[in-house]
Amino acid sequence: MDNTLLEARKDPMGRAIADYHTSGKAAKLRVLSSMFYEDEIPVATLFRSYEEMPPLEKTMLQMAHGRVLDVGAGSGCHSLVLMERGHEVVAIDISELSVQVMRSRGIEARTINFFDETFDEKFDTILMAMNGVGIVGKVERMPQFMRCVKRLLAPDGQLLLDSSDLRYIFEEEDGSFCIDLAGKYYGEVDFEMRYKGVKGATFDWLYIDFETLAYYATAAGLKCEKCAEGDHYDYVARISR
Ligand code: SAH
After folding, report:
1. Considering the entire predicted model, what is its pTM?
2. At what angle do helices 142-152 and 210-219 cross, to 10 degrees?
3. Residue 136 and residue 145 in contact, taking contact as beta carbons nearer than 8 Å
4. Which residue's CA lies nearest to atom 14 of ligand 1?
5. Using CA atoms, how far apart are residues 187 and 121, in angstroms rounded to an integer?
6. pLDDT > 70: percent of the chain
7. Mutate to test the pocket of ligand 1, among 39, 45, 95, 160 (most ligand atoms within 8 A of CB)
8. Structural domain count, the chain
9. d(CA 162, CA 208)
10. Among the listed ranges 42-56, 70-84, 134-148, 168-182, which one has the minimum average pLDDT value?
11. 117 lies in a domain?
């Protein structure tokens, strides 16, 4: 059970999205992690148009059919493309600020945590773009995640997601991979965001390789196929009944 939401005073990304929506500009959205150097998310990219999206995201949007659930929708950039194409779309996000922005952009947006088991509707396509599966946080939560997917999928429904195999971070000069198999799964990352005076809590974010994803999907009685590959260990997967 997990139905926690993100209140505005602890929501750096939501603030950045709200600022950009109202003024067309935003300050620096900083991303910190114990595993990486400090980075920054250009807030304009959260408002990307179809033309500006990376190829794998375009692939996912082309594969969408029927009634769509956009999970962790942010500014709603994917929802807007799908609405223009005639899809009925419901966008969910734990960020109250982002949901407000999406509503003012004409999207049916709701403040819902994907893991909230009382959220019980059926969708033909569940979209998790920009490594949306990251919300799973840790591999040990994959069975719970698959239960939620099964609850929300219509009989002929599909989940579309993009993720990356982070093994390249552990690649040695000779091309071998130095991964501590006794340690935590190598795609489990911790992040923290900051925007202006707003400091978010540290959160777990999961990048999952295709084989591990397929293992958990199959264990839950679902099918999992790789639909496209990017040029840097990234891929699109489709999960269905
Ligand atoms: N999909 C958007 C935004 C990605 S950022 C894009 O591609 O631009 C990830 C989003 O997921 C954030 O807006 C965050 O608030 C939301 N989120 C995080 N955990 C969530 C959860 N458990 N349920 C729903 N949304 C969640």
Report:
1. 0.97
2. 60
3. yes
4. 72
5. 30
6. 100
7. 95
8. 1
9. 9
10. 168-182
11. yes
**Per-residue confidence band for 181, with pLDDT thresholds at 50, 70 and 90:** confident
Query: Residue 72: pLDDT above 80?
Result: yes
Domain harbouring 194, CATH code: 3.40.50.150
Q: Does residue 1 register a pLDDT over 60?
A: no
Residues with CB under 6 A from ligand 1: 6, 13, 46, 71-74, 77, 92-95, 98, 113-115, 129-130, 132, 135
1 located within any domain: no
Angle at 231 between CA 229 and CA 133, to 5 degrees: 55
| Size of the chain in residues | 241
- The tokens for 105 are 């952009």
Task: Note whether residue 2 is domain-resident.
Answer: no
What is the domain extent for residue 56?
A: 8-169+180-240
DSSP 158-199: EEEEEEE-GGGGGB-TTS-B---TTSS-TTEEEEEEEETTEE
The answer to whether residue 3 sits within a structural domain is no
CA pair distance 203, 25, nearest whole angstrom: 26
